[in-house]
Amino acid sequence: MAALLRRIRRELFPTRGDAVLSVALLGLITLAGFGFLHWALFQARWLVIQANATLFAVGRYPIEQQWRLWLLLWLLVAATGLSWGVLRSHPRRDRTGALWPRNDRLAAVLLGVVGLWVPWALGLDLSLQSRWWGLVILLLLVRWLAGRFGRRFGSLGPRLVALTWPVLYLLGMVLISGGLGLVSVSPSEWGGLLLTLLEASFAILLCFPLGVLLALGRRSELPLLRWGSVLYIEFIRGAPLITLLFLGQNILGFLLPGGLAPERVWRAAWVLTFFAAAYLAEAVRAGLAAVPGGQFEAARSLGLSYPQTLAKVVLPQAMRVALPAMVGQFISLLQDTTLLSLIGLMELLGTARTVMANPAFLGKNAEVYLTLAVLFWCCCAALGLGSRALERRLDPQTVPSST
Amino acid sequence: MGAENEPAAKGVPPWWRDRRVLPWVVQAVVGLLVLLLIAFLLGNLVRNLTAAGLLLSWRWLNQPASFGIAETIIPFDATMPYWRGLAAGLANTLRAVLLGLVGATILGTLAGMASFSRNGLLRGIARVYVEVIRNIPLLLQLVFWYFVVFLALPNGAAAVQIPGVVLAKSGLYLAGFEEGVRWTVPHLVNNVWQAPLRVSVEFGALLTGLIIYSGAFIAEVVRGGIAAVPRGQWEAASSLGIGWLATLRWIVLPQALRVIVPGLNTQYISLAKNSSLAVAVGYTDLYSVAETTLNQTGRAVEVYLILLGAYLGLDLLISLLMNGLNRFVQIRER
């Protein structure tokens, strides 16, 4: 208690001037906090979110086909639990080796609370609410099982997990868009969070190899490759994203033979990919520049071929340095998907616009925008947290060299 | 390369492994592929444009625009040609970018400095500001400021009044010199505000959003720059009896600027590009005018080239200015 008081004194009241400032700031914060709480609890009409929860989640995806999305969600949750458990069951030096370290217990409690509270707050049917509880239970159950028995499979476990995700991504694409005997659902019917995540994940996955190639091209000794990469990167980085989306919507049709231009949703996804690749290339280039030239020369003199040198020596080191910048780019890519609403796609912000154009919910801007802001904030903050955890794991100071 | 040629017994390597030939082969192949792709795209472009009767031409720029712009710095009305409209849009963009740069720099520097304050509360606020703003899309923030804050302002006598400034739904009114000499504050005439300076709520929302968003990024740049100054500098200043603010102003910031300026360059350029989101809050900037022009004329390629040229030019201008500043703040060894 005395320590706390001392700390408060040191942090808030070091000098007389600071004391005045602190009191004024505390007053302002209290005032703003109470004002906000009063609005959120008594004045805001959250019905606009409750009534349109499905629209915000998946847009106009046909109701009779929504079981496919549920199935995908169950699979995703199971895969997450599996990965989480298997990773924890393989002790490394940066971990205590405990199956449920403090952060994991915290995450489990948080998941439980969010899984209980959000469906209830959205006013979903009891059957839907119980589905969300089921998802949380499945996650924790698979997590527990994988953590408990994951060690028995040795190094097979992590490899299996690494294989699960690409397979699941492809399967998810099939489940969402149809094909292989499923009724096809046209991309114009996708919307909301589903479309946002789809566009962002598509662009993130594809811009990565493209960005690495561009970065290598820019550092290449071959003038043609170097100048080509420089031209592309600077051209893309010089123009605002919205003008590139404009290019995609209005000019791509002229550049390709009639009928070959992809559907609007995919067109936007490709524009996002090509846009993000240029920025990613700069992040990777900074990483490559941080790898000492001796590494390259040493690998070459050991007889490794150029591709082997890149893949086994240079790129792994460059990626570790470039990781924070790359995740920063991914976060801004996720945020940039909101621009798709300006070209008429029904991603989260586009959906919000249609909801607020509905006469029943006119003027409910604050509630809708605040909800979207919280949603985006959570997604972006989670990406940032994950990046920092990965950085710690890849730090050679904490991990013994395993190869 | 010399190592491979050394054992004469092995002879000359075949050409596909010869390191003198290989690079040129690779480049020739890549160059050919790129050229083919460009030729393919351009061929299609010309064919499709010819079919649509829209082959590249700039004569339409001189036709009357027949659309108005709500708020311009250079005079414009619907009878003037398209190029005048585009120029008015560019001027509006420049105005938003310039004021945005100044505002974001001030806010960002203050927030960056606050994160080194002795006062824990101030540090906390700076941290929360950066973390909240950076993780929310700019477009979402802009529409929030416009639809939730600025459009909710009351009109007439109920408007928000701060000495010298009045915020109303009909616009933002600022005090200033009228007819060059008389200091005039905003006043009501027939329940309508009158003031020497008026900007629209659209511009106000855009500027607020841009400044607060870019300010958070600049705060991080400034924080990084200050953190790069060795602690000993703080301690030395403190032991000389120099206060916190004076230390920051005269000792730390001048050294931190060397790290800050290159980072600022990036942030300024992204602010300039982000100003194109003005279209979402109804402020008629260059992009917005270009979109209207496209809808009226169908000249997608020409309009796109103009847009691209304008934004590339703007980026280049900022880069040049910042490079000049960079040379100025670097340490000069004697």
> How many helix segments of chain A?
17
The DSSP helix count of chain B reads 10
Order of helices and strands of chain B: HHHHHEEEEEEEEHHHHH
Shape of chain B: flat
CATH class of the largest domain in chain A: Mainly Alpha
In round numbers, the mean pLDDT of chain A is 85
Instruction: For the record, give the distance between the C-alpha atoms at the N and C termini of chain A, rounded to a whole number.
Output: 49 Å
Annotate the secondary structure layout.
The complex is a heterodimer of chains A (403) and B (334).
Chain A: H1 2-12, H2 16-43, H3 47-51, H4 53-58, H5 67-89, H6 102-121, H7 126-149, H8 156-177, H9 192-218, H10 223-238, H11 241-250, H12 252-255, H13 264-290, H14 293-301, H15 306-336, H16 348-357, H17 365-394
Chain B: H1 2-5, H2 22-52, H3 82-114, H4 120-134, H5 138-149, E1 160-162, E2 165-168, E3 171-174, E4 176-178, E5 182-184, E6 187-189, E7 192-194, E8 197-199, H6 201-227, H7 231-239, H8 244-274, H9 286-297, H10 300-329
Antiparallel strand pairs in B: 1-2, 2-3, 3-8, 4-5, 6-7
Helix pairs in contact in B: 3-6, 3-8, 3-9, 4-6, 5-6, 6-8, 7-8, 8-10, 9-10
Give the structure's gist in a few sentences.
The complex is a heterodimer of chains A (403) and B (334). Chain A is mostly helical and 403 residues long.
Model description:
- The complex is a heterodimer of chains A (403) and B (334).
- Chain A is an all-alpha fold and 403 residues long.
- Chain A has 17 helices and no strands.
- Helix content of chain A is 75%, strand content 0%.
- In chain A, helix 5 packs antiparallel against helix 8 (156-177).
- The longest helix of chain A is centred in the last third of the chain and has 31 residues, at 306-336.
- The radius of gyration of chain B is 28 Å and the shape is flat.
- Residues 1-9 of chain B have low confidence and may be disordered.
- The chains are: A mainly alpha (403), B alpha+beta (334).
- Chains A and B meet through helix 1, helix 2, helix 10, helix 11 and helix 12 of A and helix 2, helix 4, helix 5, helix 9 and helix 10 of B.
